[in-house]
Amino acid sequence: MIPISRPLLGPEEEAAVLAVLRSGKLAQGEEVERLEQGFAELCGVRHAVAVTSGTTALFLALLAHEIGPDDEVITTPFSFVATANSILMTGARPVFVDIDEDCFNLNVRQIEAAITPRTRAIMPVHLYGHPAEMDAIMVIARRNGLAVIEDAAQAVGARYRGRPTGNFSTACFSLYATKNITSGEGGMITTDDDAIAEKLRLLRNHGSRVRYYHECLGYNCRMTDLHAAIGRVQLGKCEAFNARRIANAQLLNQLITHPQVIKPQVRPGIHHVFHQYTVRILGDRDAAAQQLAAAGVGTAIFYPLTIPNQPIYRELGYQATTPVADRVSTEILALPVHPGLTPDEVHQIARAVNALQIEAPLAQAV
Ligand SMILES: *Cc1c(COP(=O)(O)O)cnc(C)c1O
């Protein structure tokens, strides 16, 4: 079976981890600093702050922007649940705005109608590695006095009109094992704002600047040097890994010709890094996934339920108010696109897709 993702770890990562182990200094130290410098350079900003995961990155970024109870944050219903959960963790309320179906990101024409006196921030997600419409989002934020916190967990190395993700305001990355680059687990926050960066460094370390003196309520969200060593080597391979993802996506685009399979769209001016290559199946998506599995092609659904439809959000009183996201979540299917694929495997994936026998969706069969 061709897996949907596979981390590519080599002798460089092994040597880097071994060097940290042998140094006896495992906790946050020089390796974390080097990884932070690398991220700041990649994103073209002054500060990068490493933390334990993409989720803690989002949580601390919101806290650093002083978002909490009674505040609202506008975000997308079509993402991994951690995006909205990070807002709930602060006591604030996520407000969901629907998506555009061509590239699955926030529909910027619907954002302003969702702004209330309580709105404090917009949290766009660069889903699957395709940056959201950042120019429009920054204009809306400025006009309404809102913070912007990018969820760039899936978009390290992507660019919007020449600007790297992580360059617009405060942004959060994930270094989880299936992401474009990994440290095992890990997260990174980038910002050009000195005060936000300082707050983030306090929040990740018990609110402490001087050891055993605590200025504010903080947490322990420090990354270890063991993780940072892996992440630092992976960051050096980021451009090459992304280039292979893009080449695999281009080959899939060329080879897939099935009329009921809509291939991923890329908007003008976008450098898409294909964290996922997600097609839309016009018909019985789950049957298509089964046929692909039988042909040796692993697939995945990111994500089968939109966030407001998740049981925890239903319990909180959220309703289905984002019809495009709800429909798209029944159509999408991610095909393998990771840099470990061989050209033969890419051809095998496309052949299996072109051979799909797709039944019309139930709603249209009536
Ligand atoms: C992976 C991911 C996260 C969470 O990152 P972790 O490192 O797994 O905590 C948040 N948002 C999105 C869009 C993600 O893909």
TrEMBL record:
Gene Ontology biological process: polysaccharide biosynthetic process
Family: Belongs to the DegT/DnrJ/EryC1 family.
Alphabetized SUPFAM superfamilies for the sequence: PLP-dependent transferases
UniProt GO molecular function: pyridoxal phosphate binding; transaminase activity
Catalytic-site annotation from UniProt: K179 (proton acceptor)
Keywords: Aminotransferase, Pyridoxal phosphate, Transferase
UniProt xrefs under Pfam families: DegT_DnrJ_EryC1
The name this protein goes by in its record: Aminotransferase DegT
Modified residue annotations for N6-(pyridoxal phosphate)lysine: K179
Domain of life per record: Bacteria
